[in-house]
Amino acid sequence: MDNASLFQCLLRFGDNTLVLGHRISEWCGKAPALEEDIALANTALDLIGQTQMWLGYAAEVEGADRSADDLAMLRDVWDFRNILMVERPNIDFGHTIMRQFLFDAYHHAQLTALSRSSDPRIAEIAAKSVKEATYHLDRSAETVIALGDGTDVSHAKMQNALDLLWPYAGEMFESDDVDAQMAASGIAPDPATLRDAWDLRVRDTLSLATLNIPEDNFAHKGGRTGARHTEHLGHMLTQMQWLQRAYPGAVW
Amino acid sequence: MKPDLATIWEWLGEVPDPEIPVISVVDLGIIRDVVWDGDVLEVAITPTYSGCPATSIINLDVETALRAHGLDNIRLKRQLSPPWTTDWLSAKGASKLEAYGISPPSPAGGPSRCPRCASTDLQRVSQFGSTPCKAHWRCLSCLEPFDYFKCI
């Protein structure tokens, strides 16, 4: 196992939480109800906090005198390693919650496995984060059920969100050489091994939500390997990184 | 002369949590260890939630309090493992929370009674509240909303 692979692996964890954390923070002040506004902002806060830990460790492993902030604010699209699903625009509340649920179910299974990592730093960050992810999953699953099994309008919006997002779910379980190295040294699970637990949880919740899972398992991919991102990430970064782009090196 | 550790714990017991000033950082269970490493006092602090914005203020408050007691050689250490749990909230902290109007964490997953009127006829408004560590509930007897300290 080399440091470059471990660095890539940590970027994948930290970029997922950073990009999704930023996306859902976009609801702050304009969610459909005050309680939902607070819930999304709190979830975003947890994800950004986890990002600080993942990217902080990534920066140490890289040993190139970069900080977690440098990694978050000074990289461009091609250096991000998040899955494509989390960079998609929020579209509407239903789409945001469906994406959150699909991610939370994955995140929970991933962090549970990572809390047994052979790397003690990864294990402690995961053990801390999984408590938060458990809470996120409880809420997003409950909300998916309430909206899916809700009115005709909310049901149709949730089914539409699921149809749009399903082709982005497969990337969570893709494996490459970095994953093989991590799995061989007991640092991180092979993502493919998380699929069964995820499937079980997702199918159970979506069935209670009276939603139909699309039959086609085609998967868009390229985000976590850095091969290609969607056009949306670049637009998001122009906002998230605006200050550092306009005033390079500015400090608080 | 170096003050003994029991005295330092007492001093830390007077540092209020910045968001819920009715309890101290010791009541909250986030001070994990206090040791002398030669002439340096090392205080291990664990975050409640990963992104809790109060974390840096808590570090500043702890350092300020110790300096006010004449300690200059201080090192604050972030300790992640084992992760913070509401089981570490002291019994004194729990009763102070309730007196303040915040229902303390309960293993049942929700508040056991209304902190104002003690009714058990309660309803959850939101799984999240005014800080990462709280959820929002309401009492169906006295009709007052209240914060519940989430159990994690």
From TrEMBL, chain A:
Its EC number is 1.14.13.149. Keywords: Oxidoreductase. One of its GO terms (biological process) is phenylacetate catabolic process. The keyword Oxidoreductase applies. GO terms for molecular function: phenylacetyl-CoA 1,2-epoxidase activity. InterPro entries: Aromatic_CoA_ox/epox (IPR052703), Ferritin-like (IPR012347), Ferritin-like_SF (IPR009078), PaaA_PaaC (IPR007814), PaaC (IPR011882). It comes from the Bacteria. Gene3D superfamilies: 1.20.1260.10. Pfam families: PaaA_PaaC (PF05138). GO terms for cellular component: cytosol. It is an enzyme of class 1 (oxidoreductase). PANTHER family: 1,2-PHENYLACETYL-COA EPOXIDASE, SUBUNIT C, PHENYLACETIC ACID DEGRADATION PROTEIN PAA. This is Ring-1,2-phenylacetyl-CoA epoxidase subunit PaaC. It comes from Sulfitobacter undariae. The lineage of its organism: Bacteria, Pseudomonadati, Pseudomonadota, Alphaproteobacteria, Rhodobacterales.
UniProtKB/TrEMBL annotation, chain B:
Residues 113-150 form the PaaD zinc beta ribbon domain. Residues 6-68 form the MIP18 family-like domain. Pfam families: FeS_assembly_P, Zn_ribbon_PaaD. Coiled coil: none annotated. This is Ring-1,2-phenylacetyl-CoA epoxidase subunit PaaD. It comes from Sulfitobacter undariae. The lineage of its organism: Bacteria, Pseudomonadati, Pseudomonadota, Alphaproteobacteria, Rhodobacterales.
